[in-house]
């Protein structure tokens, strides 16, 4: 029990996680962009409503996410919409 308490006392919370998105492989970002823009072509009424894409890092299969807090599987990562858009230009 002491080890747990000691570890907790030395813990420092990360500073503002949401200001800087984690680095994601450019191939994953491109695949996420393809998934997002395919959805936008098929359903133009939802353009701009998504928050990003949850994508598998190895298979590059993913789903467009419309919530602020996506639930991810262990092999997935979340690519926010602003990161997809900035990578495309």
Count of discrete structural domains: 1
Strand content: 15-25%
Mean pLDDT: 81
Q: Would you report the number of β strands?
A: 3
* Radius of gyration over all CA atoms, rounded: 17 Å
Main sheet properties: 3 strands, antiparallel
Order of helices and strands: HHEEEH
Q: Estimate the global geometry from the Cα principal axes.
A: globular
The low-pLDDT segments are 4-8
Distance between the termini: 52 Å
Strand order of the largest sheet: 2-1-3
Structural class comes to alpha+beta
Helix-residue proportion: 25-40%
User: Please, how many helices?
Assistant: 3
Structure explained in plain terms:
The chain is α+β, with helices and mostly antiparallel strands. It has one domain. The protein has helices at about 1-10, 25-40, 80-89, and strands at about 50-55, 60-65, 75-80. The chain has a three-stranded antiparallel β-sheet. Strand 1 and strand 2 (about 60-65) form a beta hairpin. Helix 2 crosses helix 3 (about 80-89). The radius of gyration is 17 Å and the shape is globular. The termini are far apart. Mean pLDDT is about 80; it is low at about 5-10.
Pick out its properties:
alpha+beta, about 90 residues, globular, 3 helices, single chain, about 15% strand
What secondary-structure arrangement, pairings included, does this model have?
Layout: H1 2-9, H2 26-42, E1 52-56, E2 62-65, E3 76-80, H3 81-88
Antiparallel strand pairs: 1-2, 1-3
């Amino acid at each position: 029990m002491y080890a747990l308490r000691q570890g907790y006392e030395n813990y420092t919370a990360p500073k503002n996680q949401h200001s800087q998105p984690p680095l994601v492989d450019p191939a994953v970002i491109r695949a996420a962009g393809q998934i997002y823009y395919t959805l936008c072509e098929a359903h133009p009424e939802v353009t701009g409503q998504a928050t990003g894409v949850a994508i598998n890092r190895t298979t590059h299969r993913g789903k467009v996410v419309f919530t602020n807090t996506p639930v991810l599987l262990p092999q997935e990562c979340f690519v926010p919409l602003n990161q997809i858009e900035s990578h495309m230009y």
